[in-house]
Amino acid sequence: MNDFRAPRWLPGGHVQTIWPVLFSRRFDGTRPVYRRERWTTPDGDFVDVDWQGEDAQGDAGPLLVLFHGLEGSSSSHYAQAFAAEARRRGWRFAVPHFRGCSGEINLAPRAYHSGDHEEVGWMLARFRALHFGPIVAVGVSLGGNALLRFVEEAGASAAERVRAVAAVSAPLDLAAGGRAIGRGFGRQVYTRMFMRSMKKKALVKLGQHPGLFDVRAMRAARDLRDFDEIFTGPLHGFAGADDYYARSSAKAQLHRIRIPALVLNARNDPFLPASALPRPGEVGPCVTLWQPAHGGHVGFADGRWPGHLQTLPGRVAGWLGDHL
């Protein structure tokens, strides 16, 4: 994937980010069909897990678990593309939704965040208890950073739950990423899109738990840093946005990873500048860096117009498969 080049008809990081979401083919043939399970969390809340295909209890084949990105779901373009790749390989496939992302607001006075490694660890432990065969995991964007934070914190014990992991377009330096999408085109398009969805959910959460945060400050929030200062940080045990970014960014702790981990970031990703990407000397021996010049943010469309999304999951699943 280091040699990935976008088609000539798809120029620039922003176009390579937006076009695949709207127009590129996510799969050939049959749309992924999911079966939903609801899991009760240790704090009495719930998460919804979408499994591809019928119940396969006792299956000893590989299971690919996908952790979605900010405001993503099993219907996201990348999730459907990875589901198709898993089906092609004969692997089981599952998408656990972070709290509030499955179409129904969660119950607890919390949501999810980029450093949610305890939640990721709990989810992988549940998968390990349910599935007999080997497990590999891919995290996309926010889900990629959270997955890396889990394997960083778990060290060698991560191998008890997952054989290998891959992070695609993870915002490894949350402060740098926030600055990147908080100005110019990013502020007008990506920030507005996320803020519409996140503020709406936050206000519903306030209705569940009156006094949870300052509603006037939330209504006045204009970017992700504002949101994280008012909501994400305080609700999840951080002093504020700066503390959240510092303690949740995966980049500084990549040297702690003790299982095979692929970290894939396009150098033209508008969500994270190339200058913030890790260098080979900053990661441990278990980490493989793929940093192609093209791809945008979770884009990587390939082929003739309007493009397809099979190249990314094919290369990533191939890398994961080498570690089964």
Structure, explained:
- The chain has 324 residues and is an alpha/beta fold.
- The protein folds into 2 domains: 13-173 and 249-321, 3-Layer(aba) Sandwich (Rossmann fold), CATH 3.40.50.1820; 174-248, no CATH class.
- 37% of the residues lie in helices and 13% in strands.
- It has 10 helices and 8 strands.
- An 8-stranded mixed sheet has the order 1-2-4-3-5-6-7-8, sandwiched between helices.
- Helix 8 (224-235) packs across helix 9.
- The two termini are 19 Å apart.
Class based on secondary structure composition and strand pairing: alpha/beta
Strand line-up in the sheet with most strands: 1-2-4-3-5-6-7-8
CATH H-tier superfamily of the largest domain: Alpha/Beta hydrolase fold, catalytic domain
Q: Roughly what fraction of the amino acids lie in strands? A: 5-15%
Radius of gyration over C-alpha positions, nearest whole angstrom: 19 Å
Number of domain modules: 2
* Count of distinct strands: 8
The low-confidence runs, each spanning 5 or more residues with pLDDT under 50, are none
